[in-house]
Design goal:
alpha/beta; Glycosyltransferase; Pectate Lyase C-like; 11-stranded parallel β-sheet; 8-stranded parallel β-sheet; 29% helix; 19% strand
Length: 679
């Protein structure tokens, strides 16, 4: 007989089981935020049924006026009752907004789904949303937080949380007819977008605050009539914003052939950022003795990167902090726990402005001329030469990259003369379509020596150790050597690829542990005729990557690959026609082990040296991975290929199965065509 106590326990168990089962069948995006989903570069997923179902939600949430409400997790399933309520709400425009990414995020999602599934309803909704943004703009060029207008501070011109910048960045891509958005409005709408963008920039210039006649920064919101700094919530007093001003400045810096007024605005903002940066402190979360919520405290840290206050006095630039009573306090410690821990009072976003400014300034040729930017480039701005001896356009690779236009229409090719370039090179996300071509693979060497303990940035220090970091999509490289010379000191990355459609041909990647990191969920990379060496897990990450005709060289007994392929991804690492070699004395090397349990790695038509262990694969003390990982080989040869001795949970592909691993199937048609043209 089951008593009440036992019945309650049984109910709890059944509830847990229900949750577990529910999670097991939940769609792959349910653990992501709506923002993460909209910004995903997994093009294949946007053609899925799941994406189409979410698109139906997006259409339902859109109001007849064209905008969307904020803080909606669009990916969450809707009941029939909820759908009916949303249909009723369509006629009510009251909560349509650009706050917290609303409307801009939905437009980006619809564009990505439309590219894979050109449903006319997506296009109609997109154009309706675009018209909403055009309609919501004030005559002075600014945007309110909500449109139709809601009484109160919501009517101010809003830079808060980058709301207006988000709209202007969307408009910039549309007017420039870039490939960011797949839906192409009519020429008439593009003209309206261009005019609205120019009005928005004009509003930004007019709202930049002056101290004693000098341009400084911006407030998070400005009065819609006077354009003066304005108050929002009780703790958001008129002030200069270290956070919002950063993205505004970056937007101005992205404008090609800037006017003198734009140049002056950037110069003023950068000078202000330099003047107001705070050194020697960091913000830490600590346990609170009075609350379950962690507290935030300011602690001294001599080596910390600079920070900026969220709010600074309009005339003195002195940071201040507020509770809900609206009374200014001099330190974070003086306000209550609820606001102290529940708001971002400091930011490091301006550091990106200062980092980019040096090269932005150089591109202008230290001149206020509208055309001076072109002086830093080659005669053909799409072709740049780097030469340490001074016979090119730049002495360093990074200078050349930073000189390239943001989001270019055409590919930018940077030719690098032979030499040893001791640099930490970064291809920014706003620098897609960059090609680096070295004079020779052996003679053009990019080198650095950062490693885990040297970086000292906590448990994720590995990812900062790179010699080269690629974040710009459609990146190509040829005839280069990229190396990390730190030695056997632990994790030390030579190349970190966090971009989609990155290709490397005739390149060498030299290092020890963690030489090559391929990251970015949904990203696809291609390596042809490359040499990759290392010790432990020297090819690792979660991207899909094809290695054709490469030499994979093990420097000690350890593991070649450590894939972390996301669950549901069709392909992980695919090695085709590769040769696996080893240093003298090396004899105990595994083909791979799973960094994450759904790892996928396949070797096809490869020649394996005797250093490869007969069992081939290792589970990394994760027995569950033996059921979830996919490790396979096909038609390999050499003394290291011993299929009869491989672990039982690996596979030997059939000929029919091997035919599924062609380049188009793995990397997609678009990327395959790019590869063929680059070769």
């Amino acid at each position: 007989m089951i008593n009440n106590k036992n019945m309650s326990a049984l109910k709890r168990i059944l509830n847990v089981l229900f949750i577990v089962v529910s999670i097991s069948v939940t769609a792959q995006v349910q653990n992501k935020s709506w923002k993460q989903i909209t910004e995903s570069n997994n093009e294949k997923w946007f053609s899925s049924e799941e994406a189409a179902n979410i698109a139906e939600n997006v259409l339902l949430y859109q109001r007849n006026i064209g905008g969307w409400p904020k803080n909606i997790q669009m990916q969450l399933p809707l009941s029939d009752t909820e759908k009916q309520k949303l249909l009723v709400l369509k006629a009510d425009p009251i909560d349509c907004t650009i706050d917290n990414g609303a409307t801009c995020q939905e437009l980006l999602f619809l564009s990505k789904v439309y590219k894979k599934n050109p449903d006319e309803r997506y296009k109609i909704a997109f154009l309706k949303g675009l018209n909403y943004l055009l309609t919501a703009q004030y005559d002075n060029g600014g945007w309110p937080q909500f449109y139709p207008l809601i009484k109160g501070y919501y009517t101010h011109v809003t830079y808060n949380d980058d709301a207006m910048v988000n709209v202007l960045e969307l408009f910039r891509e549309i007017k420039n007819k870039s490939n960011v958005y797949s839906i192409n409005p009519s020429s008439e709408i593009v003209e309206k977008v261009n005019a609205a963008f120019n009005k928005g920039i004009d509003c930004i210039l007019k709202t930049q605050y002056k101290q004693n006649g000098e341009l400084t920064a911006w407030c998070a919101q400005h009065d819609e009539i006077t354009l003066l700094p304005a108050k929002a919530r009780a703790y958001e007093l008129p002030s200069l914003s270290g956070k919002e001003s950063a993205k505004i400045t970056l937007l101005l810096m992205s404008i090609e052939n800037p006017s003198q007024e734009i140049i002056d605005a950037v110069e003023g903002a950068v000078h202000w950022f330099e003047k107001t940066k705070i050194n020697g402190i960091k913000i830490e979360s600590v346990s609170s003795a009075t609350s379950k919520k962690d507290d935030k405290v300011v602690v001294e840290s001599p080596n910390a990167t600079p920070l900026w206050a969220r709010f600074m006095d309009l005339d003195t630039n002195v940071p201040f902090f507020c509770d809900r009573d609206g009374i200014k306090k001099a330190t974070l410690a003086e306000i209550g726990l609820e606001r102290r821990s529940g708001y971002a009072w400091y930011t490091d976003e301006p550091k990106e402005v200062l980092k980019k400014y040096v090269h932005w300034k150089k591109n202008l040729g230290n001149s206020s001329s509208k055309d001076s930017k072109k002086k830093a480039l080659a005669k053909d701005e799409n072709s740049i030469v780097v030469d340490q001896k001074g016979h090119g356009n730049f002495l360093t690779i990074q200078e050349a990259i930073n000189s390239a236009p943001s989001f270019p229409y055409q590919r930018i090719t940077i030719f690098i003369k032979n030499g040893i370039y001791k640099e930490k090179v970064k291809i920014h996300s706003w620098n897609p379509k960059i090609t680096l071509i070295g004079e020779s693979r052996e003679g053009t060497i990019i080198t650095n020596d950062d490693y885990f303990n040297k970086i000292g940035l906590g448990r994720n220090s590995t990812f900062y150790t790179y010699t080269m970091l690629v974040e710009g999509n459609d990146f190509f490289a040829k005839n280069l050597t990229i190396q990390n010379t730190s030695g056997e000191v632990g994790q030390a990355v030579a190349l970190n690829v966090n971009a989609n459609r990155a290709m490397f041909s005739n390149c060498s990647f030299l290092g020890n542990q963690d030489t090559l990191y391929t990251s970015g969920e949904g990203a696809k990379n291609y390596f042809s005729k490359c040499y990759i060496e290392g010790t432990t897990d020297f090819i690792f990450g979660n991207a899909t990557a094809v290695f054709d005709n490469c030499e994979i060289h093990s420097k000690k007994d350890s593991y070649i690959t450590a894939a972390s392929t996301p669950q549901g991804t069709t392909f992980g690492y695919v090695f085709r026609e590769c040769i696996l070699t080893a240093a003298e004395g090396v004899s105990q090397v595994y083909l791979g082990r799973p960094w994450r349990i759904y790892a996928k790695t396949v070797f096809m038509n490869c020649e394996m040296g005797r250093h490869i262990k007969p069992e081939g694969w290792e589970n990394w003390s994760k027995p569950e991975a033996e059921k979830t990982a996919f490790y396979a080989e096909y038609n390999c040869k050499g003394s290291g290929f011993q299929p009869q001795k491989r672990v039982s949970w690996s596979r030997q592909l059939t000929k029919k199965e091997s035919e599924e691993y062609d380049t188009e199937a793995i990397l997609g048609i678009e990327f395959t065509h790019q590869i063929q043209s680059f070769k």
